[in-house]
Amino acid sequence: MKALALLAPLALIAAAWEGSVALFAISPFYLPPLRDVLGAIGANWQAYQAAFLITLLEAVVGFVAGGLVGVGSGIVFAHAPRLKQMVLPIFIVSQTVPVIAFGAIIVLWFGNTLAAKAAIAFYLTFFPVTVNTLAGMEAVDPRQIALLRSFGAGRRALLWKLLLPSALPRIFTALRLSAGLALAGAIVGEWFGAVQGVGALLLAAMFNEQIIALWAAIILAAAVGGALFALVAVIEARLLFWREEL
Amino acid sequence: MTAALRGLAGGLILLLGWEAAVRLFAIPPWILPAPSGILATTWTARAGLLPAAGMTLAEATGGYAIGAVLGILLAILLSQAAMLRRVLLPVVVIINSVPVAAYAPLALLWFGTGATSKVIMVAFIVGFTVFLNALDGLTRVDPAGIALLRSFGAGRLSILWRLRLPSALPAIAVGLRVSTVRAMIVAIVTEMLGSQLGLGWTIFEAVLQIDFLRVWAAILVASVMSLAFFGAITLLERRVVFWK
């Protein structure tokens, strides 16, 4: 059902793309016909597949690590309000740092490795997750906490049975947002000298002024983004089974 | 008040710990320079950093203004056309799910390495963010409120002006606030790919020259600017959405 709902707008984009190129005779310098772009991907399938997998892996590693650390620090902050008041403002300020400018320094630290790109994806992921975990746990009705306590629930039971489950919808909101950010982090991380991945393909196409290859790389980036969103949606459907209509 | 003090203390501890760690373990500046070193470099390199910062700020705020206006206007238009909205919204969401970084090379090829490509990129991303937030706020209005206004004979425009827009203001404000940092980042990223002037270009050049202190100095300037931009919009938001 969800896949179908996605197919219709995709078909619409494809039709509008092909149609407007034919109708308005758009110069291929701006928009080459979609079939040429897809043809280029098909002709070089293995290279594009490899780039897809590499960038997806970089983004997923950073995204998963950032998600786990984000939930963890959200839990810690929810239990230690003083620590929260000391550290959270630093987190907030750190988010106004144009992270991508850090790309160069992170690549210097980690070399041109998977870890470098994953580190950028991590940095972009963990903050929204931290904030939403904290907000979700703080929004729990105190009467529910009191009720569980009256049944003799300890801290741990409270966390697992009430606080975290109630925070899950907000955590997933943050995860959906972060998935896109993690991908952007991985792609930009590849701009600093990487030879493989979607980011490297984008740069190569730009420098060689190959507009078809550039559009192919953009479609590839969309595919990686789609895969990341699908990953989040699958986990969400599993963990949030009690919520109808996700 | 105590919360603000604790936040300040946290920041100070971080800076002092950073400075102490660099001095104690004699960390070379190309790995991690001390805060004092970054400040000193920012001062000595100010002649180069200032025009670059001005350029980036002009691109970011210019693109921001264009994108915000277009985003809000488009959201108002689509909020009045339910059918069109149902068809177009998924398309917009898909286009928006491709990271901006992927569109940046395209903008450079099309519009060259001048300021135009950066302004267009910033306007594009800010426009999308503001549009999605504004549309969400405009369409998530209490139906009872609409029914009430209708019963008093209010037309479409009057409902839009008296009910939809005021109740969408908080959502629009969130979009505008989030967009400030994004505008700066997009301007810098696009500059890094190719430009003649700007902080992104400064960073790119300094990386090539392996002058990492200058990279940090440029990051510092960019962060201060984006914090100021964020603060200015937040202040404005408190004024306009005073009832929140």
UniProtKB/TrEMBL annotation, chain A:
Subcellular location(s): the record lists:
Cell membrane
User: What are the transmembrane regions?
Assistant: 48-78, 90-110, 116-137, 181-205, 212-235
One GO biological process this protein is involved in is: transmembrane transport
- The organism's superkingdom is given as Bacteria
In this chain the ABC transmembrane type-1 domain maps to: 52-241
Look up and give the membrane topology term: Multi-pass membrane protein
Q: Which GO terms describe its cellular component?
A: plasma membrane
Keyword terms:
Cell membrane, Membrane, Transmembrane, Transmembrane helix, Transport
List, alphabetically, the PANTHER family matched: ABC TRANSPORTER PERMEASE PROTEIN, ALKANE SULFONATE ABC TRANSPORTER-RELATED, MEMBRANE SUBUNIT
UniProt record similarity statement: Belongs to the binding-protein-dependent transport system permease family.
Annotated protein name in UniProt:
NitT/TauT family transport system permease protein
Top-level taxonomy: Bacteria, Pseudomonadati, Pseudomonadota, Alphaproteobacteria, Acetobacterales
Automatic annotation (TrEMBL), chain B:
Keywords from the named record: Cell membrane, Membrane, Transmembrane, Transmembrane helix, Transport
User: What are the annotated GO cellular component locations?
Assistant: plasma membrane
Domain annotation ABC transmembrane type-1: ranges? 53-237
Under which name does UniProt file this protein? NitT/TauT family transport system permease protein
The protein's matches in CDD domains, at most eight in alphabetical order, are given as: TM_PBP2 (cd06261)
| Segments crossing the lipid bilayer | 50-75, 87-113, 119-138, 184-204, 216-236
State the signal peptide span: none
List the source organism: Humitalea rosea
**Would the keyword Transmembrane helix be found if you checked this record's keyword annotation?**
yes
Entry keyword Membrane: yes
**Annotated Pfam families:** BPD_transp_1
Output the superkingdom of the source species. Bacteria
The UniProt family comment states:
Belongs to the binding-protein-dependent transport system permease family.
In terms of InterPro entries, this protein maps to: MetI-like, MetI-like_sf
Record membrane topology? Multi-pass membrane protein
